[in-house]
Write a structure and sequence with these properties.
Layout lengths: L3 H15 L5 H14 L5 E6 L2 E4 L2 E3 L5 H9 L2 E6 L5 H12 L7 H8 L5 E4 L79 H6 L2 H10 L6 H17 L3 H16 L7 H10 L2 H9 L7 H11 L1 H12 L4 H11 L7 H5 L6 H14 L5 H6 L6 H14 L5 H7 L5 H10 L9 H10 L3 H14 L2 H11 L8 H17 L2 H10 L5 H15 L2
Antiparallel strand pairs: 1-2, 1-4, 2-3, 4-5
Length: 533
């Protein structure tokens, strides 16, 4: 059965991979994993009122913010993908979502590319149903025919549909299923509940396989001599590590964690002591490697999360040693689930290798580490644009008051891509300190797409200052004239719809009889959409 939050996370990461021209191998792995997820389940993704839902279940989280922004950029209100979709049609959808907004809306572009099994309803047409057109279904495109490229951005997605061999790279979609675990060693309990279940004899413990011991422990996890059972299981884990059977060791460790969670917190002392002894550097390194393999990620992340700060150290070492996106994706995802030891991330921002700085900057942004802001700010002068791009995105995602001044610098970067990433990363009410830097940047920005993203970012912030700025940009006169005027006003109308404050609604009502036909129509549509919330 498809897990909504897991699917949303996987879709978000896949679209982000499609934006990176240098991540072909990762794109292939993620694309095929996404196809596997959809093999038996149809999916409907909705974006409404700044919130996402999958098959009617609300999904949220920092990692989903880029996906929400991509859908919003393309005015996608609802996206429906059938079970077992044609690979070429899913590819066209991902390519379109990863690319810039074109002259035609997304349904028109998909229809033109032949993606008929996938339907899209855009927010700009509230009363229009997404009607698929009929084409022949093709399981694979003709050999040697490269997918249609999206204008302006080189996504590097060529070859994904050609059947190239792919190893085990790429995180599995069910990573978000990792449960929260406690790291504290409880004080000895009062004895209440500890005598539940019968004792297991030493002879029985010694002669049983780890599978049998785990089954017995799962049946009665609070057994009095659980410590003896755990000690025996620790020997099995050690034996598996010595024979390089990491998957077997992980299976035992995951079973122990399940048993621990079934015991009241006051009675977990035996488990805490045993696990602390098992969390050796060798075990953690082996388990960290398994975060790269889709079939082991949930258990691997659960074990690493339970290990705490030592696991973060191991994962960061692995991240440093992973120069390519596909190699670091599993490690990156695992680190976003860690709860302890994250201060170690900050020290790596000053690393001498550019790709390490890039990787760690992205991680700091995903984790929202405000303490990392001064270190990120120093990297805004890095000679490599890829580093500055990741730093700008991270500062925008942190969104704190301390990030405002560094973000202002990022928005003046000579690289269009750096400025674009800085604007795209801003989102949510928590980013209200960034409103004024965005307004100042808008006064100086000349690139139309960056300008549009800055305006939409103000809508996502939705603070009084942000809305007042949007009201000014929506008016027929101002600092912008000529052909840019209508484009800016339309972007402001869309941003006011996103903000949805009383002042924004009042402005849209006033614009519903504007002299510009396009602005007037956009305002009417925006008001209709807001009524549906």
């Amino acid at each position: 059965m498809l897990v909504p939050h897991a699917f949303a996370t996987h879709l978000a990461r896949t679209v982000e991979l499609f934006r990176d021209p240098q991540a072909k191998t990762g794109q292939k792995a993620q694309f095929r994993a996404l196809l596997a997820l959809l093999k038996h389940d149809a999916v409907t993704v909705k974006s409404e009122g700044g919130r996402l839902s999958v098959n009617g279940t609300a999904v949220e989280g920092v990692v989903l913010e880029p996906l929400r922004q991509h859908l919003e950029r393309h005015a996608v209100g609802e996206l429906s993908i059938p079970a077992s979709p044609p690979p070429d049609q899913l590819f066209q959808l991902l390519t379109a979502l990863a690319g810039p907004r074109g002259d035609a809306d997304l349904p028109t572009r998909l229809r033109a590319s032949g993606a008929a099994r996938i339907t899209v309803a855009v927010t700009g047409q509230p009363d229009q149903e997404a009607t698929p057109v009929t084409i022949q279904r093709t399981e694979e495109p003709p050999p040697g025919v490269a997918p249609t490229e999206t204008p302006k951005l080189d996504l590097g997605t060529e070859g994904i549909l050609r059947g190239d061999a792919v190893g085990d790279a790429g995180p599995g979609p069910s990573l978000v299923g990792v449960s929260e675990v406690s790291h504290e060693v409880p004080a000895p309990g009062s004895g209440k509940g500890q005598a539940e279940g019968r004792d297991m004899t030493p002879l029985l413990i010694k002669n049983q396989s780890p599978e049998t011991l785990l089954a017995e422990l799962e049946r009665q996890p609070n057994v009095v001599n659980a410590g003896e059972v755990l000690a025996r299981l620790a020997l099995h884990v050690d034996s598996a590590l010595r024979t390089n059977k990491i998957e077997r060791a992980l299976k035992v460790m995951a079973g122990i964690l399940r048993c621990e969670q079934a015991v009241p917190e006051t009675n977990r002392r035996q488990y805490a002591i045993a696990l602390k002894r098992m969390f050796t550097r060798g075990l953690l390194e082996g388990v960290a490697h398994l975060t790269q393999l889709a079939g082991h990620q949930v258990d691997a992340v659960a074990v690493l999360q339970r290990a705490g700060a030592p696991a973060v150290e191991v994962l960061l070492d692995q991240l440093v040693a992973s120069p390519s996106l596909e190699e670091r994706s599993g490690t990156f995802a695992a680190l976003t689930h860690m709860k302890e030891g994250l201060e170690q991330v900050i020290h790596l921002i000053d690393h001498h290798q550019w790709y390490v700085v890039r990787n760690v900057a992205e991680l700091a942004g995903e984790l929202g580490l405000e303490a990392a802001v001064p270190h990120l700010a120093k990297q805004l002068d890095h000679e490599d644009e890829r580093v500055r791009r990741s730093v700008a995105l991270a500062l925008a995602k942190v969104g704190s008051r301390s990030a405002a001044e560094p973000l202002r610098r990022a928005l003046k970067d000579p690289s269009r891509e750096v400025r674009l990433h800085a604007a795209m990363g801003v989102g949510g009410r928590k980013a209200s300190p960034l409103a004024m830097p965005l307004v100042v940047a808008l006064e100086e920005e000349e690139d139309e797409e960056v300008e549009r993203e800055l305006i939409l970012a103000l809508g996502r912030i939705g603070s009084p200052d942000a809305v007042q700025a949007l009201i000014r940009f929506a008016q027929p006169s101002g600092k912008l004239f000529g052909r840019k005027s209508t484009a800016v006003r339309l972007a402001a109308v869309e941003a006011l719809r996103i903000a949805a404050t009383p002042a924004a609604v009042g402005t849209l009502q006033g614009l519903s009889d504007d002299g510009d036909k396009e602005v007037r129509g956009a305002a009417v549509v925006a008001l209709a959409q807001m009524k549906k919330r």
